[in-house]
Design goal:
By secondary structure, the chain is an all-alpha fold. It has two helices and no strands. The N and C termini lie far apart (62 Å).
Length: 89
């Protein structure tokens, strides 16, 4: 292993920190744009909201009954993995 001076190590950490902050801010901008687009294009129906509440309640009861479990698998028959699905129909 090569020895790096303390000064050089601090400089590299500072440089990495600046790069990471810039990257994180870019990601936040992209995520915000996606969330805004999804909210505009997605119409919640009563049935969808009922299904979501039911799924969350089932998951919560599963983890209450089995607190040592780390994973939960659910069967969602009407789910579509296509992100281009138009929910406005």
């Amino acid at each position: 292993m090569a020895d790096i001076s303390l000064l050089k190590k601090i400089q590299l950490k500072d440089r990495l920190s600046v790069m990471r902050k810039a990257y994180d801010s870019e990601i936040k901008v992209v995520e915000a744009a996606v969330i805004k687009k999804v909210r505009i294009g997605f119409q919640y129906t009563k049935e969808i909201l009922i299904d979501v509440v039911k799924a969350v309640e089932e998951m919560e009861s599963f983890f209450k009954e089995k607190p040592n479990e780390t994973h939960y698998v659910a069967n969602i028959p009407d789910a579509n993995a296509n992100p281009k699905v138009n929910f406005n129909t």
